[in-house]
Amino acid sequence: MKLEQMHYIIEVAKTKSLTMAANNLNVTQSAVSQSIASLESEFGLPIFIRSRTGVVPTKEGLSIIQTALEVVTKLQDMKERVLRLSQTMQAELQVASIPGVMSSLVKTVSSFKNDYPDVSFRIIEANSDLIMQEIRQNKVDLGLVGMRGSTTNEAGITFEPIWEGKIVVGVWQNSPLAAKKKITPAEMRKLSFALYDETYIHDFLHDFSEDHGKLSILFRSNNPNAIATALKENLAATFGYDFSFFDSPYALNGSLVMLEIDEVEQIPIQLGWVRSDTDKNVQISNLFIQRFLQHFQNKP
Q: Taking the mean position of all CA atoms in its chain, how far away is CA 127?
């Protein structure tokens, strides 16, 4: 059974006429008649019979025509999806991310561009609150953020978690604490901290102060380089969710040492992709997220 034969029997069933079906399909009546005869021979049963009201399907023919209609409809839907996707593949994708996973993001962009060279990218680094604001205002298509809980109750926003994280302390390799695997609240109270200006950092600091005493804060900043400088000079330690250090060059080369926090109950946070439900680039966004997960899934 060929695709053109499906179109022929569907059109004949609709018009109840070989002549009208042929005219609608811009082929000869004999082409339609011969094609249907060939199909009936292939199946070994009649698909149509002639009646006073025209050419009508047999009982078996109705089943064949219904199946053909489903196949043709699905093929048409696939063509339309491919067309929309090809149009989308010339779009600009604007992606915002918190620091710490930028290396995986850049690798994803490079890999994606190899397969879809007509897609252009704009990458922004910001904290989760600012990224959420940009998403709400449709200024970016995708945001990689930290969020407490696995979902958001905000209407019109979709959140897809990919990692559950916990707060860890970071110290420079020449710190006396670098040889340890864990750090206690008492040891943390003896340190100064340079912190990234992020809501979940503020929340942990508040909860820690309530339960274990106040910490000394050297400064807060949205500049990771400023924090790295404070650590290199042993002016401060830092803390943040483990996923925020995954792609840090200092953590990768061993200069920055991560310590688990002992004796502190933590509320986990989800790292995940957030986007507006009205995202105009939803198809390409889905493909990009899938590609990102391929680069991210082998993280420690």
A: 19
pLDDT tens column, 148-188: 755 556 778 889 898 888 999 999 999 999 999 999 999 99
User: 3-state secondary structure string, 20-37?
Assistant: HHHHHHCCCHHHHHHHHH
**pLDDT reported for residue 80:** 60
d(CA 164, CA 131) in angstroms, rounded, equals 19
Q: How many CA atoms lie within 13 A of 21 on its CB side?
A: 25
Residue 65: per-residue pLDDT: 92
What the block records as the tokens of 54 is: 């025209």
CATH 1.10.238.10 fits 3-88, yes or no: no
Q: How far is CA 139 from CA 84, 87, 124, 144, 286, in A?
A: 22, 20, 11, 14, 18
Q: Is 167-267 in the same CATH topology as 92-145+274-296?
A: yes
- For the chain, which residues make up each domain, given as ranges? 3-88, 92-145+274-296, 167-267
Q: Report the SS3 class of residue 95.
A: strand
Who's near 227: CB < 8 A, 6+ residues apart?
A: 194, 195, 196, 221, 236, 238
Overall fold of domain 92-145+274-296 = D-Maltodextrin-Binding Protein; domain 2 (3.40.190)
> What backbone torsions phi and psi does residue 128 show, to the nearest 5 degrees?
-60, -40
Coil/strand/helix, residue 259: strand
Q: Name the architecture of domain 167-267.
A: 3-Layer(aba) Sandwich (3.40)
Strands 192-196, 216-221: pairing kind: parallel
Look at residue 105 and give its three-state secondary structure.
helix
